[in-house]
Write a structure and sequence with these properties.
Length: 211
């Protein structure tokens, strides 16, 4: 029997939680005070296609129409920032161009665009403060050699691997996974394909045959 849409959404909301792990905070020598900090553990990274599918399910708009609107939305933010304008979305936050000043070899200073500043809205902060929290036990950690072995095993069943998948496979952070994959590229163990937010890695089979 199919579950009504409203009941299904309520079930999803009930099971939603921000998962986190606790870690010891490094302290200077001589300071024995024990401090703990929490880190969120994202189960996945939501991308444009995921957003389109969810909005499509919650409305009568097709996924293609949703994507067209979101593309225009992103374009308009970029358009505004290029003109030096700031963009404020009451439910989301505040966008503004980020600048960086560098001193050149001739002593002069050069100003460049360094990205985008984002300040979360108070409305979104208030909503997130009521989110459910769920503590996870510390995952088993693997040394570099073991992480590479686990990756090789993964390639026996899959053609490509992504940074989030590698991180989940080896129970490590996104930054650790990215550093590992970069080192495999330098050693020519892997080949990078794609670009932007759709990067994945192929096994360089010739290298593995030599091993």
């Amino acid at each position: 029997m199919l579950m009504p849409r409203q009941s299904h959404q309520q079930l999803i909301l009930k099971n939603m939680a921000i998962r986190f792990t606790e870690h010891k905070t490094p302290r200077p020598k001589g300071n024995e005070e024990k401090l703990i900090h929490a880190r969120t553990t994202a189960s996945q990274t939501r991308q444009m296609d995921d957003i389109c599918k969810v909005i499509c399910q919650r409305s009568s708009i097709s996924s293609a129409d949703v994507k067209a609107v979101l593309d225009s939305f992103v374009w308009y933010i970029e358009f505004s920032l290029r003109y030096g304008d700031h963009v404020e979305l009451e439910e989301l936050g505040y966008f503004s161009p980020a600048l960086r000043t560098r001193k050149q070899s001739d002593g002069k200073f050069m100003v460049t665009v360094d990205g985008v500043n984002f300040r979360c809205s108070e409305k979104l902060k208030q909503k997130l403060r009521t989110a459910k929290l769920e503590k996870e036990s510390q995952p088993q950690t693997y040394p570099l050699q073991k992480r590479e072995e686990r990756m090789r095993e993964y390639f026996k069943e899959h053609e490509t691997i992504t940074t989030p998948t590698y991180a989940k496979l080896n129970a490590c952070s996104h930054y650790r996974a990215k550093a590992d994959l970069e080192s495999y590229l330098e050693k020519k163990i892997l080949i990078r394909i794609g670009g932007s937010t759709h990067v994945s890695y192929l096994l360089n089979e010739n290298i593995f045959r030599q091993k």
